[in-house]
Amino acid sequence: MSDNAHDISLEQAKELVTLLEDGKQQQANQLLEDVYNRRNDKLFTSVGQLTRDLHEALQDFQVDPRIVQMTQDDLPDAQNRLLYVIEKTEDAANRTMDAVEACLPLADDMHHRVEKVMPAWNRLMSNDIQLNEFKSLCHEVDDVLKRCGENMPQVHGLMTEVLMAQDFQDITGQVIRRVIQLVEDVEKNLIELLKIFGKEEERRNAEKAGPAPKKDAAHAEGPIIDADQRDDVVGGQDEVDDLLSSLGF
Amino acid sequence: MDKNMKILVVDDFSTMRRIIKNLLRDLGFTNIQEADDGNTALPMLQNGDFDFVVTDWNMPGMQGIDLLREIRKDDNLAHLPVLMVTAEAKREQIIMAAQAGVNGYIVKPFTAVTLKEKLDKIFERIS
């Protein structure tokens, strides 16, 4: 839409022609210049308005002094906290596996020893044993009992270690909760930022908006935390198996 | 199934490699090596006489799906059975892995029973 106040009017044009026809060149030039300047004024006013808007927007945005602290301190701090979570959980997993790996041979050892005495033991229980076999069975059972007495406190200690390794949950839970709080704060500030600067951007995006770019399926998404709300993911191994067998697997 | 077969376990998390190694050991497999992504795994496979690969999908460097494709492209490795053990659970991805020639697909979290089942199935089909 043209702004009539700044456009050249028919009257002005006629006046210009009259001046030129009358040979009043200087006055004609002056009239043309006036019209031109009025148009320029409009441009200057617009730029001035934009500058004022931008300035005010920046002033408004600085109302939250935490934004600086967030970028300088809180976000790097959050990164460190999350790294700490990885460290703690890895440590706990390794402590647990250390203990389990130490337990398994003890369990295997007991199992083998018991298996070894079982045939003679079964014969004893069914009153079908020779005296010399009975004597050697006694020694073997004695051995099993002694070994059991030694191993079980060790297993108990290792199990306690597994139990204690779970203490990461409390610590990492607290750390993650703090990071969630920070993400919320950052989100709030980003929304404010978008409110101030985003209107123009929104309009431009709306103009060129096409379908959202399709994500590369090979791109790993990591663990799905909302499988029950999505229909593009499987809900467990059974569904994987069904899908694969439907493909002829 | 040859319990002495040489297995490569590929996962960027050492704890997951350790879990898989323990489960495989429980099933009687002891000849197991580890790699932390496709870029480390591929030269190991090319230079070593591996019989079986267990790989994650989501890894920095070369992802599991790309490792699988590299394996199928390489004449010397193309026959190698590959089991994917991953948290990636999109149908599209499972289909993609199947098309790339995966031999089995396990979604995390998984159980020892599932691992045994898939191993049995893979080697039953091969033999």
Automatic annotation (TrEMBL), chain A:
Please give the Gene Ontology molecular function terms for this protein.
Answer: phosphoprotein phosphatase activity
**Pfam families assigned:** CheZ
Q: Which GO terms describe its biological process?
A: archaeal or bacterial-type flagellum-dependent cell motility; chemotaxis; regulation of chemotaxis
> According to the UniProt record, where is the region Disordered?
202-233
Composition skew (Basic and acidic residues), residue ranges: 202-219
Query: Main EC class of this protein?
Result: hydrolase
Q: Which UniProt keywords apply?
A: Chemotaxis, Cytoplasm, Flagellar rotation, Hydrolase, Protein phosphatase
Q: Where in the cell is it found?
A: Cytoplasm
Q: Which InterPro entries match?
A: Chemotax_Pase_CheZ, CheZ_family_phosphatases
EC assignment: the record states 3.1.3.-
Which residues does the UniProt site feature Enhances dephosphorylation of CheY-P point to?
A: Q174
Q: What does this protein do?
A: Plays an important role in bacterial chemotaxis signal transduction pathway by accelerating the dephosphorylation of phosphorylated CheY (CheY-P).
How is this protein organized at the quaternary level? Homodimer.
Give the UniProt family note: Belongs to the CheZ family.
The protein in question is named Protein phosphatase CheZ
UniProtKB/TrEMBL annotation, chain B:
Q: Name one Pfam family in it.
A: Response_reg
| Compartments reported by the entry | Cytoplasm
Q: From what superkingdom does this record's organism come?
A: Bacteria
What are the protein's UniProt keywords? Cytoplasm, Magnesium, Metal-binding, Phosphoprotein, Two-component regulatory system
Q: InterPro entries this protein is in?
A: CheY-like_superfamily, Sig_transdc_resp-reg_receiver, ST_Response_Regulator
Where on the chain is 4-aspartylphosphate found, per UniProt? D56
Could you tell me which residue ranges the Response regulatory domain spans?
A: 6-123
Q: Name one GO molecular function term.
A: metal ion binding
Co-factor requirement: Mg(2+)
Q: Which residues form a coiled coil?
A: none
Biological process (GO) annotations held by this record are: phosphorelay signal transduction system
GO CC aspect terms = cytoplasm
NCBIfam families under this entry?
A: PRK10610.1 (NF007901)
PANTHER family for this protein = TWO-COMPONENT RESPONSE REGULATOR, TWO-COMPONENT RESPONSE REGULATOR ARR22
Q: What is this protein called?
A: Chemotaxis response regulator CheY
**Organism name:** Idiomarina abyssalis
Q: Report the gene name.
A: cheY
